[in-house]
Amino acid sequence: MGSDPITDLEAELADFWRRGRARTRARARAIDPRLDPTCYPLLILLSRHDAIPTSKLVADLELEKSTVTRQIDAVERLGLVERRPDPCDARARIVALTQVGRQKLDDVVALAVSNWRERLSQWDPADIRQLTELLRRLDDSESSGTGNTPR
Description:
This protein is mainly α and 151 residues long.
């Protein structure tokens, strides 16, 4: 590593993101070999809720509406999600994981968590909590507008 901690951090994060994209591709293939890895974050977001309005998915994923619609279409064709009328707005639709989609995603996430537990088994739990908090702070500093990288 070099002498500048910010340069070192940028390089390490770039490598971490690259490895993360590879993990995402593998997890998407484990759910369904035809699943586009770019749809994986959509499935993860849906897994945290019973159902989500499309407009919230667009906002939370920070993608164009047309992109999110194409992703929903793709995972719907695979039987992983379904659209339903929004009970709060007759003009809108909500999106939810199907039972099959939730089970497949739960299995993949459980394996991922198991792998993280194995990799971090020798770490002090306080270090893991501190890393989690530091990553959250780093993300919060970017999303609050103090970073200068476009999102």
